[in-house]
Amino acid sequence: MPTDALPRQLARTRRFALGTPTHPVITADGTTVLFVRSLGGADPVNRLWALDTATGEERLLADPAALGSDDGDLPEAERIRRERARVAASGITAFSTDATGRLAAFALGGHLWLADTTAGTVRAVPTATEVYDPRLDPSGRLIAYVGGGALRVVSTDGGGDRALAEPEDADVTYGVAEHVATEEMYRSRAHWWSPDGTALLVARVDEREVTRLHLADPADPARPPRAIRYPLAGTANADVSLWLLGLDGARTAVRWDRAAFEYVTAAGWDAHGPYACVQSRDQRTVRTLAIEPGGDVRVLAEQRDDHWVELVPGLPLRTASGALVDTAVHGDTQHLTVDGEPVTPPGLQLWEVLGTEGERVLFTAVDEPTETHLWSYEPGTGVRRLSEGPGQHTGVRRGATLVVTTRREGHPGGRATVRREGRAALELTSHAEAPVLTASPELLRLGPREMRAALWLPTGYRPEDGPLPVLLDPYGGPATRKVGTGGVWWDLVSRWFAEQGFAVLAVDGRGTPGRGPRWSKEIHGDKAGPALTDQVDGLHEAARRRPGVFDLDRVAIRGWSYGGYLAALAVLRRPDVFHAASAGAAPTDQRLYTTHWQERFLGHPDEHPGHYDSGSLIADAPKLRRPLLLIQGLADDNVFPVHALRLSSALLAAGRPHEVLPLSNTTHSPTDETVAANLLQHELGFLRRSLGIS
Predict the structure, then answer these.
(1) How far apart are CA 199 and CA 251, in angstroms?
(2) DSSP label at 141?
(3) Phi then psi dihedrals of residue 500, to 5 deg
(4) Backbone dihedral region of 562: left (phi > 0), alpha (psi from -120 to 50 degrees) or beta?
């Protein structure tokens, strides 16, 4: 296989996201599954589709090309949403439905469209402004959307467009989630309809006190810099408040102790009324609040933790009877709770809550850290696993219809299977390309901590062929498991490096999720030490178990984001072990990342300055004596270019040679096909050169 085959395929397919059916929604009668998908594995434009669950027939409901609309001029809020959500495709990337699923609303290039999923018709809905995040009310009469920072409603026939709340300043918005909510709290929404469609719960976000950073494009010096409100650790957050807005013009503030609980981590409106989840700045206390019609609140539940309260996506929710669905830690297990009682067994770690129907709860959970499975809980029946076999499973359920989406070997984009009781299973057709490589890692448990690890060796390699240069390929930190049976795209990258002559090892050390609260929180106050120690221990244990395979005199490490930080950390602080590093989008200065993320692990920098000093890499610059490649997207508004540039400046001042690869017009996730395809080749050349590999 040519060495550029996989890099170019990853770039062409947007890491196998194109052509994959996503965002399945089941209609109320269970007869139809709505979803989005492009026409092929290299086609970036998503269309809206419908699957008949009785016949298996698919219908194309909405095609951007046929509608004469595209993504050429996205609203800024929509561009940011896609970046935060790591959306790879264009076209119809999200949609909302009424309670029945008969109507579906979506935005294209700032314009509003409405599809009748039964009749198969699509029409434009005229609006007064550009459109962001359109949401149909449950009755299907009105659509709420954000335009120009205002929360607006319009009738589905295009009449009566009006603002329910307008911004008081350029840095105030209604209905748009703030940066830390979308990036770190799992909350991408900021407006929610009442079940009867007569009112909305809306977040007002005031960013006037938030630090203003700027991103310039050095490749286009005539273009003015882009100003971004970005809450650096220890500085002011956005001022987020909640409001009840009636269609009759009524406006009621939701009142809670916002000084003590400044984060709004979740909100919603169900048959029992509006609700919200709020969190203290130190993240040690979370309260779930019921919101009364007059704006007063009452506490439904409170969680406390000496380190931080772990937020679980999809929570809180309530069942039809009003029982609160939430989570609690008992022993070393993150349990699902219903009405305050744990309903999942010890050792089954709650991952995400996907929804409730009646008294039934659909959720994902982890009992083996390399897998995620789909589960259901129902009173009287208890907990039941719905997914089978290795992989990463999730799903959606309505009535007797269940859609299970599974990522596993050979299907990094995922496969979606539709199950209906008493009928043969159906598949949502995937047009995703088959990978040119098979990942097939050897899964290991290393050392007394039984760290999960994956090992790749070149095809046909035998120990008698001699030891191999080693490449550690971890993420190794909070929020992401790198080691699993899901066949995700990064496994294929590790396999590709192995085929270039490396023994490639990925280790999930302390801080990675899925191993229980104690494991996750061992990095509290120190995101560097435990993670680096675990990489070193994992390497040495793997070498002990595979004698003659690892050349410990030629060890490199690569990574992106936190993984990039870990790679740079490794060569700076353990040059006795690591001989070269490729560090992409590495947050090198802990004070230059966001409040909610950094303060969760390190505390407030005014109270714990030592945590930030010991975790930052700038002061370590004089220690560098191994080759280091810094890769940085110059349009990255998550890990700003200042991180790479400050470390590079410190290295230069200390007289330490290093390399910097700037990526013009590239965000935190490179999407340009040429950049993405050639980036791996550049890394490979650097690693070979640095380790003396011909």
Answers:
(1) 10
(2) S
(3) -90, 5
(4) alpha
Give residue 540's identity as a one-letter amino acid code.
H
What is the distance between the alpha carbons of residues 504 and 472, in angstroms, rounded to a whole number? 6
pLDDT surpasses 80 at 1: no
Q: How far apart are CA 649 and CA 645, in angstroms?
A: 6
User: H or E stretch including 352?
Assistant: strand 349-357
CA distance readout (Å), 129 to 111, 151, 491: 8, 11, 44
Kindly indicate the confidence band of residue 410, based on its pLDDT and cuts at 50, 70 and 90.
confident
Q: Where are the domains of the chain?
A: 1-158, 317-419, 442-691
Question: DSSP secondary-structure letter at 432?
Answer: P
| Contact by Cβ (8 Å): 571, 558 | no
Q: Residue 223 has which token pair? A: 């273009």
Query: Could you tell me the CATH superfamily of domain 442-691?
Result: Alpha/Beta hydrolase fold, catalytic domain (3.40.50.1820)
pLDDT of residue 347: 97
Nearest of 49, 48, 40 to residue 14 by alpha carbon: 40
The whole-model pTM stands at: 0.96
102 to 53, 119, 402, 432: CA distances (angstroms) = 15, 9, 18, 28
- Sorted by sequence, the CB contacts under 8 Å of residue 152 that are 6+ apart come out as 127, 128, 129, 144, 145, 146, 161, 162, 163, 164
pLDDT digits (tens, 9 = 90+) for 476-498: 889 899 999 988 999 999 999 99
* Separation CA 650–CA 636 (nearest Å): 21
Q: Which residues pair with 659 in a beta bridge?
A: 629
pLDDT attached to residue 72: 66
- From the list 194, 145, 211, the residue with the least C-alpha distance to 173 is 145
Q: How far is Cα 689 from Cα 267, in angstroms, rounded to an integer?
A: 52
Please state the φ and ψ torsions of residue 124, each to the nearest 5 degrees.
-75, 145
Cβ distance 419 to 401 under 8 Å? Answer: yes
Neighbours of 357 (CB within 10 A): 14
Residue 334: Cβ within 10 Å count: 23
Q: At what angle do helices 5-12 and 489-499 cross, to 10 degrees?
A: 160
Token pair belonging to 18: 């194109």
CATH placement of domain 1-158: 2.130.10.120
Q: Which residues contact 448 (CB under 8 A, 6 or more apart)?
A: none
Nearest-CA neighbor of 426 among 23, 24, 16?
24
Q: Are 528 and 569 in contact (CB under 8 A)?
A: yes
Distance CA 15, CA 22 (A): 14
Q: Which helix (H) or strand (E) holds 114?
A: strand 111-116
Q: For residue 450, count other CB atoms closer than 10 A to its CB.
A: 11
10 Å CB burial of residue 257 (0-12, 13-18, 19+) is: exposed
E strands in 458-515: 468-472, 503-508
